[in-house]
Specification:
Neuraminidase, 5% helix, globular
Length: 363
């Protein structure tokens, strides 16, 4: 039998639903086979303190594939499923743990990027191009617009989002979704700065951080007294900044917690109950200044090898790297899920990966 795209995807992922294949699943996918040896060598202990989070008999799984750029995972324990964005394909995908199906949850999805579950179990979403707004999907399926402008001007491109225990909603607003045509439509920014915003329980929008250049992922410490934010540009390397959260919802005491290596790229991340930061990691795309001979051509190659950088870097609360999970694709974002909140889901380029760990998500 001549292999078809469907049979190839089925062999590679083993868990793609027919709806995912039916609607634009034309992105490249990669054959993947779980490691047969325990402990899985993909889980690397960089510091002895990380060893307690590794499950000896747990291995990395590719649970879905066929996306173009996977982002924004959010887990819903009531239904036992995970939603994630496939941004260039303009859709939100659903992975159901009960039957391992992978189907289209919403499409078109206004180029959704970051997603989160609020305290009532509703989906909140960053629509980071065209509509350029933050929405909430109600239990009846209707959509409520929570924010689309600030001080009379349109938001830039809402990116990542988190819901605090007090039910305030925090999100980043860089330029990525309006910088080109790949993840939406090119547009001129109206905001003078790229901010981190807070939506109060009264619905009012406040800019809590205005001095970061393209803020990206964000998360709170387990006690929610600190806010961590990735700055994509503006420092020599990508960084995570730490802020103290004040009682009135403002932040202060800006401190650099993590400075990525000049080859590394911080993106989305989550915090576990012990305060460790589990960070999407990969090449930042920087090129070597000098071209090298490759097959008779002078080529400016990447600084660092993608295969050495792609994965999840884990930092302790003091910002020290303690563990690394190697992935065959660049990891943009991740979340904790599963019935016990100890299954790490990683949205990585074309695929969704999962790994059981001895850690639990802080929220």
């Amino acid at each position: 039998m001549t292999p078809t795209r469907r049979t190839l995807l089925g062999a590679a992922g083993g868990m793609l639903g027919t709806a995912a294949l039916a609607r634009g699943a034309t992105a490249q996918s990669f054959p993947f086979a779980p490691n047969q040896r325990y402990p899985d060598p993909a889980v690397q202990v960089l510091d002895p303190s990380f060893a307690k989070y590794r499950i000896y008999s747990s291995t990395l799984e590719q649970v879905a594939t066929g996306m173009r750029w996977a982002e924004g995972p959010a887990y819903f324990p009531e239904g036992g499923y995970l939603l994630c964005s496939d941004i260039p394909n303009n859709r939100i995908m659903k992975f159901d743990e009960k039957d391992n199906s992978f189907t289209v949850f919403r499409g078109p999805a206004n180029y959704a990027n970051g997603n989160a579950r609020d305290r009532q179990g509703r989906l909140v979403t960053c629509e980071h191009s065209v509509t350029r707004r933050v929405t909430r999907t109600e239990k009846d399926g209707s959509v409520t617009v929570l924010a689309d402008s600030f001080e009379g001007k349109r938001l830039n491109a809402p990116n990542d989002i988190v819901v605090r225990a007090d039910e305030t909603i925090w999100f980043t607003d860089p330029l990525f979704g309006i910088n080109g045509e790949w993840e939406g439509s090119r547009a001129q920014p109206e905001q003078p700065t790229t901010n981190v915003y807070r939506i109060g329980t009264d619905g009012k929008l406040a800019a809590v951080i205005t001095d970061l250049v393209n803020p990206n992922g964000l998360a709170f410490s387990p006690d929610e007294k600190k806010l961590y934010v990735v700055e994509w540009r503006g420092t020599p390397n990508r960084s995570i900044w730490s802020y103290d959260v004040n009682a009135d919802g403002t932040v202060g005491n800006k401190t650099k917690l993590i400075d990525a290596a000049d080859q590394g790229a911080l993106d989305g991340f989550k915090v576990d109950r012990d305060g460790n930061l589990w960070c999407g990691w990969g090449s930042n795309g920087a090129l070597e200044p000098e071209a090298r001979d490759v097959g008779g051509r002078r080529v400016h190659q990447l600084r660092g090898k993608s295969e050495d950088l792609d994965g999840v870097m884990v930092f302790n609360p003091q910002g020290k790297p303690i563990g690394f999970i190697r992935l065959p694709e660049r990891c943009a974002n991740l979340t904790f899920g599963g019935p016990k909140n100890n299954r790490l889901y990683m949205t990585s380029s074309h695929s969704l990966y999962a790994l059981y760990v001895e850690a639990h998500g802080a929220v």
